[in-house]
TrEMBL record:
Pfam families: p450. This is Cytochrome P450. The chain crosses the membrane at residues 20-41. Keywords: Heme, Iron, Membrane, Metal-binding, Monooxygenase, Oxidoreductase, Transmembrane, Transmembrane helix.
Length: 521
């Protein structure tokens, strides 16, 4: 033992003795003192101490848990960056970046920035899906098996089931509006939500969940998924707590808890899997589940049955609120801007009258013949991306340099698309405004074309790198079909123009209040 060591012995001993005496005198005071010391240590001794941010955030993760609980992180993170600058310390060991260039670096594949334990909190436990898997090598293996089922070609092959769901949505809306007059107020947001869920039911399990058919949130499934998401978002800020909460053996026995396995979506998915396992006949069509089962058969050890279920089931969770939120943002913004709405409707009708749109709009027709629609959609995904919380990665190895400064190994990095998409250098000085025209360039206008290419490079609505949204092909396909279809078929009016939707983000931005009156054109 060194000389220093021999002096430390009595010092440690007397410090412990002091704490023991204090503890015996007042346990509460001792715990408060220890927490205060821990707070001050994190705030002032950490290498991140030079970064600005809220006082509480620098010493405790309860601050970001509180912000997530409030459900306004999409606004709070913008406000934090406007107050403190491009890099903000939002947790003792976490920095948020506002620069789109920094975000590209953090998300780019092969640089070793892996997902943090935030994702570990999201179910299912024991067998994470593509989204929740935090072990990068395992994620890469699983992804090899799911790439083909998730390809654009696979989803295109499922177009008839998307069309069938669009038809069902239109039938429902037709039934609500009386011909020639505007309907009574309808929560269109709910119907877009039901649509997104039913498409996923068809695509993943060849079964509509019945939300549209029944015109309601069957068995409170959507509500309960949103509640699970609130838990994930908040506890994800302090992941170890999950061990004492949802992962604890007593959790499912608590009177106010409905086990996730009892959710209507999960029950339906399990029933479909059981049906496939118990019958020798394959379903008449190839859905996500059957393609994943084919992947499993190729290498049952590397991609087992539990993974098949986790991935197919995970698609519903990852793809429903996200797609619904994007469609709601689009509708709210175009309906709130009469000149944009007019221009969009004119474009759709011109294309329709020129015979360029099928009876149910095809996604490539929409891409080719509706450039203003594409601009409106892109702008909706820019101004109101569906993920309202940050996405998180960890600094690898010996540390890294971002934005010209060194960040130590193990630091968590956060990027929020709501912040990134308001960068005025990339998106223009009016980046806070919904203006689809920023995405348009006249033919041969090279200057504007390269400006648009640059904006495209810095869009993060689907994340980026090796974890870029794997379901984006499906989302883009269905949105490109259903929205022009609705706009061509109905005339919409907001019940309360200018009234913002209520937005709550614990991961996805869940929105309420897209109330419209509408009639058949
Ligand atoms: C407009 C709709 C959608 C948006 C805006 C969206 C957004 C995102 C974002 C931002 C990520 C990255 C999250 C992160 O890195 O932390 C992500 C990942 C993911 N999304 Fe989507 N998503 C959408 C639709 C879908 C759909 C329809 C599906 C499934 C069919 C899906 C499945 C997934 C999966 C599995 C991941 C994890 C990918 C990985 O980590 O490798 N998403 N999504």
């Amino acid at each position: 033992m060194s000389k220093g060591g021999s002096r430390e012995g009595p010092l440690v001993h007397s410090t412990l003795a002091t704490f023991w005496a204090l503890f015996r005198y007042s346990p509460t005071l001792t715990i408060v003192t220890l927490l205060a010391i821990r707070f001050l240590f994190r705030r002032y001794v950490s290498p991140l101490r030079r970064y600005p941010g809220p006082f509480l955030a620098s010493g405790t993760r309860l601050h970001s848990a509180f912000l997530t609980w409030r459900g306004k992180t999409h606004e709070d993170h913008i406000a934090l960056h406007r107050k403190y600058g491009p890099v903000v310390r939002i947790q003792p060991n976490q920095l948020s970046f506002a620069s789109p260039e920094a975000a590209r670096q953090i998300l780019s594949p092969g640089k070793g920035f892996h997902k943090t334990l935030f994702y570990w909190v999201f179910p299912p436990y024991g067998n994470p899906d593509i989204f929740t898997e935090v072990r990068e090598e395992v994620h890469a293996t699983k992804k090899r098996f799911v790439n083909q089922p998730y390809s654009l070609a696979s989803f295109q092959a499922m177009t008839p089931w998307v069309d069938q769901t669009i038809q069902l949505l239109c039938d429902k809306l037709d039934g609500i509006c009386i011909s020639g007059t505007l309907s009574t107020p309808l929560n269109l947001g709910d119907y877009l939500h039901y649509f997104a869920f039913d498409v996923l039911g068809q695509v993943a399990f060849s079964t509509a969940f019945g939300f549209l058919e029944q015109g309601k949130d069957v068995d409170g499934a959507i509500k309960s998924i949103d509640a699970v998401q609130v838990y994930d978002g908040i506890v994800g800020q302090i992941p170890f707590l999950d061990r004492f909460l949802r992962r604890a053996f007593y959790w499912d026995y608590l009177p106010w808890v409905t086990p996730l396995s009892n959710n209507y979506i999960t029950r339906t998915a399990l029933a479909q899997l059981a049906k496939r396992e118990n019958s020798n006949t394959k379903p008449g069509r190839r859905d996500l589940l059957s393609m994943l089962l084919e992947s499993h058969e190729k290498d049952p050890n590397k991609f087992d049955k539990n993974s098949v279920f986790a991935v197919a089931h995970g698609a519903i969770f990852a793809g429903s609120d996200s797609t619904a939120s994007t469609m709601q943002t689009f509708m709210w913004n175009i309906l709130n801007n009469p000149s944009i709405y007019e221009r969009l409707i004119t474009e759709i009708f011109d294309a329709h009258q020129a015979g360029k749109l099928s009876e149910i709009v095809a996604w490539d027709e929409s891409q080719k013949h509706l450039p203003y629609f594409q601009a409106c959609l892109k702008e909706a995904m820019r101004i109101g991306p569906a993920v309202g919380l940050a996405i998180y990665r960890k600094v690898p190895g010996t540390g890294t340099e971002i934005n010209g400064t060194f960040i130590p190994c193990g630091t968590e990095l956060a990027v929020n698309a709501w912040v990134l998409h308001r960068d005025q250098d990339i998106f223009g000085r009016d980046a806070d405004v919904y203006r689809p025209e920023r995405w348009l360039a006249a033919e041969g206008d090279e200057k504007n074309e390269s400006r648009i290419k640059r904006m495209d490079r810095y869009m993060f609505q689907f994340g980026g790198g090796s974890h870029v949204c794997i379901g984006r092909n499906l989302a883009i396909l269905e949105i490109n079909k259903v929205l022009p279809q609705l706009l061509r078929r109905y005339k919409f009016e907001l019940v309360a123009p200018g009234r913002p939707m209520h937005q709550h983000s614990s991961f996805f931005v869940v929105q309420e209040g897209l109330e419209v009156r509408f009639q058949r054109r």
